[in-house]
Structure formats: C-alpha cells, structure tokens
Automatic annotation (TrEMBL):
<dbReference type="InterPro" id="IPR011042">
    <property type="entry name" value="6-blade_b-propeller_TolB-like"/>
</dbReference>
<dbReference type="Pfam" id="PF00326">
    <property type="entry name" value="Peptidase_S9"/>
</dbReference>
<dbReference type="InterPro" id="IPR001375">
    <property type="entry name" value="Peptidase_S9_cat"/>
</dbReference>
<dbReference type="GO" id="GO:0004177">
    <property type="term" value="F:aminopeptidase activity"/>
</dbReference>
<feature type="domain" description="Peptidase S9 prolyl oligopeptidase catalytic">
    <location>
        <begin position="452"/>
        <end position="660"/>
    </location>
</feature>
<protein>
    <submittedName>
        <fullName>Dipeptidyl aminopeptidase/acylaminoacyl peptidase</fullName>
    </submittedName>
</protein>
<keyword id="KW-0031">Aminopeptidase</keyword>
<keyword id="KW-0378">Hydrolase</keyword>
<keyword id="KW-0645">Protease</keyword>
<dbReference type="InterPro" id="IPR029058">
    <property type="entry name" value="AB_hydrolase_fold"/>
</dbReference>
Length: 660
C-alpha cells in the first residue's frame, strides 16, 4: 500500500449531469478528469445502457459539459469546434453552437447556430427554442446590426472591457464577475436558430426555466429589479406566445416545475421565521395560480445536497418531476437522500444510503443516480441495488492508504446532539502521539458527512488526526438547529470547541499540545474567531474568510442582505453588534501563526476580508502568510484550476508541517 498524496486526485473521475433518454433505455452523463498539463478539466460525454449497465464513451474532444436529449437516439451539446466560430467569440460576437451526435456512433455535426449566448434552453413542440440569453442593457443589441454599424459596436465593446460602471446592487456575483445592468433574459428562437423575440423585459433576470411534458408551456422563476435586487421573486408562465404571472403568494421560490400539464409544483419560503436559511416548503397550484396548497407543512428539511466534499465536479439535477411526483434531494443528519412527494402530500423515502446522492434521473419511476457511498468516490447506481453500475473510481484508491471516518457524538444538554467524525492518521499506532487538525465547514448551513474528502485523507496520510463536526448552524437537523442569527461566534464556537475536547478525551493518541485549525467561508470566519479567542492552537489556515461584518455588508455579492440577516443589524442600526461579531475586533489578541488563502475573484467573501485579518496579525508581530490565487473564486477548493488546487493543499500542509 502506498500513501495517498495531494497529486492523487488527478486520477479521480468526477461524474455529473446524468439524464435518461426519453424512452428510458439509455442515459447520458459527463465524466470529468483533471488535466494538469493544460491546467483544466477534461469533460467527456458517456452513454449508459440502463438494462445492461454497460457504459461507453460518446465524445472525444474533452470539452463537452452540457447536453440535452433531442430524441431517443440523438444528443445535442454546446461546443466551439469551428475555428471561425472561435474567432468570432474572441472578437466579442455573441454566438452559441449546438452539435448533434447519434449515441450509436459517428462524428458530431453542427446542428444549430444562435447569434446569442445561450444559457438554459428547451425545445418546444413546434421545434422552436426557448432559452435564457445574456443581456446587457448598457450595450447596443448586436441583433440586426450589419456592416459598419456592427463593427462599431464590437469595437465599442472591446474598449468598454477596460471599464466597469456600477448602477445597482448586487454589482457582482461570485463566478460570474460584474453583473450591474446585466440579466439572463428569456428569448424565443425559430427552429433554424434565428432569433424571433424576447419574452421578458430587459430588467428581468431569469433564474430557472422548465417546460411541461407536452412542450407547449414553460414555467420560469425570475426577478425584476432596478437599482436593488430584493429576495422575493416571481413565477411566470409562458404559453401560446404570451407571458402571464399567476397570483401566487409572494416568497422566495427555489424551484418551479410541472407536476402534470395543468399543475405546478414549487418550493419556496417567506423567510419570516428563520430568515435566509429557512427550509423551503413544497407547494402546488393550477397553472393559473388557483388551488395553491402547501404539500409539506410539517416537513422541516433542506431540499438539496449540502454535504460538503472536495471530490465532486460539475452540476447535476437535484429536483425533477415524473408521473405526478416531485423527486428531490434532501440533507438529513450527515447523509443526502432522495425523496418524493405527490399532489396529496404523501412523502416517500426513495433512496437512503450512508453517503450522498449527488444527482439523479427518473424515467417512468426508474431511477439512476450518481452517489458517494460510505467513504468512496462517485459511481452510478440504480435504485434497485447497492452495488454500482460503473467502476470509474473503484480501483483508484485500492492501493492507497485511506482512513475510515469514525462517528463521534457530543451529547447535548439541549434537545439535539452534536455529530461529527474523527479520522485517525493513516499509519496509526496505538500509544503513539499525533498532531491534530480541527476542520470547520462553510455555510454555516452545510454539513460534514460520511463521504470521501480528499483534503482530510491527505492530512491523515501526513500523520494527523482530523476532527470535524456539525455545530449548531449546520444543516440536516431542521430550522431550529440551523438558526444562529445574531449568535455567530457564541453557541457555534462552544459546540466546536466542546467537540474537539470530546475527541481529545476519546482518543488518547491526540497530542493536545499540537493542534491546528482550518476552515473556509464560514469555516474561515470561525478560524479567524477561534484564534482571537484561544491560544491553544499552534497553527491556523484561514480560507476565503470573513473578518469584518461591516465591510462584508457593503462589499460582497450577498453582503447587503446576508450580513444584516445573519447578524441581525446593519452598520446604521447597530454597528457595535456587527463589530462585536467580527473576528477583526479581537485580532490584537491573536498569537497563532496563520496562513490566509484567498482568491482574487472571490466575490462571496471578498479579498479584503482576508487582507484585513492578515494586516492585523502582521502589525502585531504574529507569523502570517497570505497566498492569493489569481483568476479563482470562492469555489477554489472544489472546482478551481487543478494546479491551483494542488498549490492550495501544498500551502496548507507545509504551514501545518512547519508549526505542528
């Protein structure tokens, strides 16, 4: 057996996007693999024969990430394979190319060309295409411009790339860059790809698009705003060339689909009781908005997979409808399950595993899903078996030392215990003392689960205990447990430290004099908080952190509503409360050598948050190092460029190695 190393995750296969063919006989999915030489991910389409379980590679250009079934035997996907198309794109022309390929073989051929940048799209019954497109109200429309007028506009766009004008909030978005006056607008295209008309206005931002089984209606979730985006959004229906707004209860909707051709199914929350993090309920209504009903008034579950790991890549379906049911993922405890609910509110558990359902597809009741079974990498499974249909990752870890997370429970004096895990050093020997890393998840409304986590296995193989838990504020245990508004750094801090003490008490081999702490996002906030309130940690690695709630409020893409919701005040209503909950307030008390890891395009926890804390430590003569990753955002540890992810782990492990 060889020790698992940082570079080993270049061999992992990440699976995403699985979807049945219309007849249910086959499924298509994407396989991603790190390409270190070109510092990117190679992404390829594969076909799974549902009956036999056999898979085969469909494409070979290594750049196919989005696809759609055109019929039972043909798939379309977006690509930029023609050199002339690439040149147009580089010249800032708006262009999208769809290629078609038969699943039984042959080359992909160009199928449709659009003179707009498409996001989500669907084929309607008459062959026309309804799609979201990028739209900037500060730019002139290229459609209809020809010759010198078109050249002038392209030249103007090139010149304007050196400027950003902000006229609204939010003005940027993590992973998308500057967004002021930019929208995802709904448009209709003819069957030959030519533009027909816009469906929504220039200030309406479309968040989701789905069509019914008859392909003659679409339901969208959208937000219309100028100057300031509010959190309540709208559900709109497109039918017979017209857009209507059914009179539904105002709330923040997360999903809208068709339960059948005449009924909608929606998820939403009014955020009145538990704020932004309130678990959404499931509703149904007729398409005209009548007979609006809550199907899940007693359900208190998050309707998505919030179990964190750095061993996924790509997006997958988390909700869909089939035969009168809404199928959805839900985080419960430390696992992610698949459930379904019908129009009568009858709730069933469909897939329950130790681990996570990462994405799924349903066709006439038959389910296939991408899963991470207990401490293993992703494979594809069917609902009828615990054994995987695929073997993309089964041999990768076979010759590596992998430690099994051991569940540990901290009994609570309240109503809910604190659950977590301890990973022993890979070469563990009883009676020998080992250093320990306390790891804290982001969110805070996410959860650590019993799934494979590359970073933690690397630390284990370097000789560390790794301790991690789900304190109050985490997901998986309902609204009351996850609600820490106005309490950041208090009850959550107590839970984390008490869990660490429980681990030290339980595992005699943990050296309590050699403990480090790390975390990202909320975990970065808590790392900053901990080192300002305790000297017991000999080293810290703070990633994409929050240090100052006052600056967080006014600089990040979610700041103006997230900070005020989570802390309970604004800089004008009670700046002292925001400051009291800010780790920067206590930075002069820090004695822990700290490494800060941050991305320069992280607009969720902006660069200034890490820099403020770093400057404070340096000014107070505390050993500190700041490593900035250019061109990366908040998702560096999960989907950053491969070489940057390797450098991140090297920075972390070398820092802990130096001080522990």
């Amino acid at each position: 057996m060889e020790r698992l190393t940082i570079e080993d995750f270049k061999n992992y296969r990440f699976l995403s996007g699985i979807r049945h063919s219309p007849d249910g006989k086959n499924a298509c999915f994407v396989v991603h693999l790190m390409n270190l030489e070109e510092n990117r991910y190679d992404s390829t389409l594969y076909i799974l024969n549902v009956e036999s379980g056999k898979t085969r590679k469909l494409t070979s250009s290594n750049k196919e990430t989005q696809f759609k079934w055109l019929d039972d035997e043909n798939i379309v996907f977006t690509a930029m394979r023609d050199e002339k198309d690439k040149e147009k794109s580089e010249a800032l022309e708006e262009i999208t190319e769809l290629y078609k390929i038969n699943i039984h073989g042959g080359e992909a051929d160009k199928y449709l060309s659009f003179k707009k940048e498409l996001g989500t799209y669907e084929f309607l019954f008459d062959g026309s295409v309804i799609a979201t497109v990028t739209f900037d109200s500060n730019s002139h429309e290229l459609l209809g411009l020809e010759g010198e007028d078109r050249s002038k506009e392209l030249k103007r766009r090139k010149e304007e790339k050196d400027y950003e004008v902000l006229e609204e909030i939010p003005y940027w978005s993590n992973g998308s860059g500057f967004t002021s006056r930019k929208r995802s607008r709904l448009a209709l295209f003819n069957s030959d790809g030519s533009f027909k008309n816009y469906i929504t206005g220039e200030f309406t931002d479309v968040e989701s698009l789905r069509i019914n089984k008859s392909k003659d209606k679409a339901v969208i979730i959208a937000t219309t705003f100028k100057d300031k985006m509010e959190l309540a959004n709208d559900v709109l229906i497109y039918s017979d060339g017209k857009l209507s707004s059914p009179p539904l209860i105002a709330m923040n909707y997360g999903y809208a689909g068709f339960l059948d051709d005449e009924h909608l199914v929606l998820t939403g929350s009014n955020m009145l009781t538990y704020g932004l993090n309130e678990n959404k309920q499931i509703f149904t209504s007729r398409i005209d908005g009548s007979d609006f009903r809550n199907l899940s008034p007693e359900m208190d579950l998050s309707l998505y997979n919030s179990v964190g790991t750095d061993s996924r890549y790509g997006s997958s379906q988390e909700k869909t409808t089939d035969r009168g049911f809404l199928y959805f993922l839900t985080t419960e405890g430390t696992d992610c399950k698949l459930r379904r609910i019908d129009a009568g509110g009858n709730l069933d558990e469909v897939i329950s595993i130790t681990g996570t359902v990462d994405g799924f597809s349903v066709c006439e009741g038959n389910i296939i899903y991408i899963g991470m079974q207990e401490n293993s990498l992703q494979e594809i499974y069917s609902s009828g078996s615990q054994e995987p249909l695929t073997s993309f990752n089964t041999g990768i870890l076979k010759d590596r030392t992998v430690s099994i997370p051991e569940r540990l429970v901290l009994k609570s004096s309240g109503s809910t215990d604190i659950e977590g895990f301890v990973i022993r050093p890979a070469m563990f020997e009883e009676g020998k003392k080992y250093p320990c890393i306390l790891s804290i998840h982001g969110g805070p409304k996410t959860v650590f689960g019993n799934v494979f986590h590359h970073e933690m296995q690397v630390l284990s193989n370097l000789g560390y205990f790794v301790v991690y838990c789900n304190p109050r504020g985490s997901d998986g245990k309902g609204n009351e447990f996850s609600d820490i508004r106005g309490k950041y750094g208090t009850i959550d801090y107590e839970d984390i430290i008490s869990f660490l003490d429980k681990a030290i008490e339980t595992y005699a081999e943990i050296d309590s004099d050699r403990i480090g702490v790390t975390g990202g996002s909320y975990g970065g906030f808590m790392t900053n908080w901990i080192i300002g309130h305790s000297d017991r940690f000999k080293a810290a690695v703070s990633e994409r952190s929050i240090s100052n709630w006052i600056s967080m409020y006014s600089t990040t893409d979610i700041g103006y509503y997230f900070a005020s919701d989570q802390i309970g005040e604004t800089p004008w209503t009670d700046s002292e409360k925001l400051w009291w909950h800010s780790p920067l307030k206590y930075a002069d008390k820090v004695r822990t050598p700290t490494l800060f890891l941050h991305s320069d395009e992280d607009y969720r926890c902006w660069l200034v948050e890490g820099l403020q804390m770093y400057t404070a430590l340096k000014d107070n003569s505390v050993p500190a190092r700041f490593c900035m990753f250019k061109g990366e955002n908040h998702e560096l540890s999960r989907s950053g460029k491969p070489l940057h992810r390797i450098r991140r782990l090297k920075e972390m492990t070398e820092w802990f190695g130096r001080y522990l």
